[in-house]
Amino acid sequence: MSALPDLALSERVLELAIAIQRIPAPTFCEGRRAVFIHERFQAEGLSDVSMDMAGNVYGRLPGAGSQPPLVVSAHLDSVFPEDTPLDCRREAETIYGPGIGDNALGVAGLFGLLWMVRGDASLRLRPNLSGRKAKPSPALPGDVWLVANVAEEGMGNLRGMTAVVDRFNSAVSAYLVLEGMALGQVYHRGLNVRRYQIKVSTAGGHSWVDYGQPSAIHELAGLITRLCALPLPSQPRTSLNVGVISGGTTVNSIAAQADCLLDLRSEGDESIAYVASQVEGLVEAGNRSGVQLSWELAGTRPAGELPQDHPLVKLAVSCLEAQGIQPLLNIGSTDANLPLSRGLPAICIGLTSGGGAHTTGEYIHTLPLLQGLGQLLTLVEGAFEGW
Q1: Between the chain's N and C termini, which has fewer beta carbons within 10 Å?
Q2: Domains of the chain
Q3: What are phi and psi of 269, to 5 degrees?
Q4: How is the chain split among helix, strand and coil, in percent rounded to 5?
Q5: Rounded to the nearest 10 degrees, how much is the dihedral formed by the CA atoms of 333, 337, 341, 342?
Q6: Backbone phi, psi, residue 263, to 5°
């Protein structure tokens, strides 16, 4: 029998999450955190522990049957630059720290699942330093692949999850994606995302001597103002955000170069295509003598969805209800986008509640983690059935 989560196991998962959070892992620089997880997978005695060319870390928990395996993944990377202070503090029932919920706790949840599925969680709270290989779990009729993947955040464009799905494709029961926060959410729909890099070039010059000549920064500022004035549909919900601006050289120079990164999202394919055409048109219309504007598609996240009556979605709902949590079926931009876009069964779930994601004030609540681990265990046990 699998071991139901208790306070001791929850505490061990939280301790591991803090250890993971303290290892810097900005997108494209997840190596140190990946090595840490690789070593922990080996110490726990998982089978076939490996790292692929993308930087993803894999470990297999053998099942007792021959059903197709289940892939449970959590992304390693965070949004914070390498030099961000990763101070972490605990106050009562809350833990504060950049990236603690997104996604250090999600990665730690892989180990929480491992300890519960083995059915002897109290013996597995600490690493298996003997390196003894995992024995088949009689609780599961198929293998569980635990995957810590890279490049989910920012401009990673789901590169890590793409490699995971390329490896397993449809030869799995399902893909379950773990996020540290958003407990109660069932993300069964993938949000359509397009990212643009927009560049502006001018001759530049001296702020006094050449005053009146076009500035790349001024041109870009005007363009952004026009972009923000675009009417966006509320149904289907659509958003536009300029997240990064750069350019110029000194305060007394007319900027010769400037660029920005633009993020478009929509629940509707036609809506995002329409807004994207408007963006591209505004950029191209800004070209004139002495001013050159250009755009390029810097990244996409493909859309896809499971219907609400799909067995995996219904199972996720029942697992939350069993924990006394009212489920919320939702759409989001997560690693689940990738398998969903290929027509594969996938959902993303959260392990606890919290807030401040993508800020240095990020925090998680500790007590709901018991319910989050409970839903995860029953979801994994049921995910081998029904399709």
Answers
A1: N
A2: 7-190+304-382 (3.40.630.10), 192-301 (3.30.70.360)
A3: -65, -45
A4: 30, 30, 40
A5: 170
A6: -115, 125
Q: Is 207 exposed, middle or buried (0-12, 13-18, 19+ CB in 10 A)?
A: middle
Residue 137 confidence (pLDDT): 63
152, 160 in Cβ contact below 8 A?
A: yes
C-alpha–C-alpha distance, residues 294 and 317, integer Å: 46
Alpha carbons 173 and 35: distance in angstroms, whole number: 28
Residue written as tokens 């390029």?
Answer: 296
Query: Can you spell out the DSSP letters for 238-253?
Result: EEEEEEEEEE-S-TTE
Q: Which residues contact 200 (CB under 8 A, 6 or more apart)?
A: 216, 217, 219, 220, 223, 247, 257, 258, 259, 286, 291, 292, 293
The helix/strand/coil state of 296 is strand
pLDDT, averaged per 10 consecutive residues of the chain (387 residues), comes to 77 97 97 98 96 98 90 97 94 96 97 88 40 63 96 94 97 97 97 96 96 97 97 94 96 97 94 96 97 96 94 97 96 96 97 95 97 96 78
* Residue 136, pLDDT score: 62
- Which runs of E-coded beta strand occur in the chain? 47-51, 57-61, 67-75, 89-91, 94-96, 142-149, 174-179, 185-190, 192-201, 205-206, 238-247, 253-254, 257-266, 292-301, 304-305, 328-332, 346-350, 354-355, 363-365
Cα separation of 13 and 19, whole Å? 10
- Whole-structure pTM value: 0.89
Strands 304-305 and 185-190: antiparallel
| Three-state SS at 74 | strand
Q: Tell me, what's the pLDDT at 64? A: 87
Residues 6 or more apart from 11 whose CB is under 8 A from it?
none
